[in-house]
Amino acid sequence: MTKKFQNTQIYQELVDSIGITIENARQRAFQVVNNELLQANWEIGKYIVEFEQQGNEKADYGSALLTNLSKDLKTRFGKGFSKSNIYLMRQFYLKYQIFQSVTGKLTWTHYAELLSVSEDIARKFYEKQAINENWSVRELKRQINSSLFERLALSKDKNGVLKLAEKGQIIIKPSDIVKDPYVLEFLQIPEVYRMTESKLEQKIIDNLQTFLLELGKGFSFIGRQYRVTLDNEHFYVDLVFYHRILKCFVLIDLKTKHVKHQDIGQMNMYLNYFKVEENIEGDNPPIGIVLGADKNDILVEYAIGGISNNIFVSKYQLYLPDRNVLEQKVKELMNELN
What we know:
Helices cover 52% and strands 15% of the residues.
C-alpha cells in the first residue's frame, strides 16, 4: 500500500518532475535511435548504388542482387531486410544523396511513404508539410493518396508551386485555407447513395479527426448546428471552426446537391451575424465555405460578385482523385509557365 505523505501536493510535484525527466530521456533516446537508423539505411543504399556503378549488377526490384542481399542479411541480422526494404534503402540514397538533407524529425517509415512519390517537387512538399504539421505516417499516407499537393498546386502559378514545394503550405490570407475539391473518401459513402445534409454532417462529426486533417493546419472545432437567431427566427450553421493562424471563425455549410445563389446569400447573412455578435477583440472577419456536391462556376461568380465578406464555394468528392491525372495537370501547368 502506498504511504500517504503529509504534503501530498509537494509529493505529486516530485512524481511529476521525475515523470518529465523520464519522458524527456525516452524522447532523446528515440531521436538518437531514429537518426542512427536513418543514417544506416542511407549508407546501405549508398553501398548498393556504388556496387552497381562498378558494373557488378543493376539493383532494380527484380534483380538477383536484392534477392541475395535480403536472404543473407536476414540470416545474419534478422528482420528488417526484406527485398522491398532493401530496395527502399537504395531509393533513399538516390533521392537524398546528401545525408544532411535528411531530417531526423521524420522516421524511416515516413521516408518509406515519401519514396512512393515519384515527382521530386511533390515529395519535397509532403516532407516539409509532414514536419510542419507533425503528421503521423498514417496521416502522411492519406494526404499523398488524396493528392493534396496536386490539388493545392493547380490553384497557383509556377512561383506558387515552387514555393509550395520548398516551404509547404503557408497560410497568410483566407483563400490559403480553401481547397477545391475537398476529398471525403474517409466517410466511406457510396457515390450512388442518396445522402441528406444531416447524415453527411453526422458522418463528418463521426470522422472529425480525419476531416480536420483534410481541412488543414490551424482548424479547431467549435460546434455543429450553431444557432443564429434573427427576428425570433432560428437558423443553424452546419459546422463552425476557429482558425488559430488567421484568428477568425470559419463557417461551413453543407449541400448535397448543386450550390444555389440562395445558399451563398444565406452564408453572407451568417458572416454578417458573426462579425457583429460573435467576434471579440482581436478576431479577424469570419470566413464562409459553402461545400456542395457540385457547383456552377458562372453562377458562383455572379452570386459572390460585390460581396465584401470572405465567401468561398467548393465541391466535395467521396472518392480519392486519380493521382496520375492530377500529376499530369501539374506538369502541364509548369510547362505552360516556363
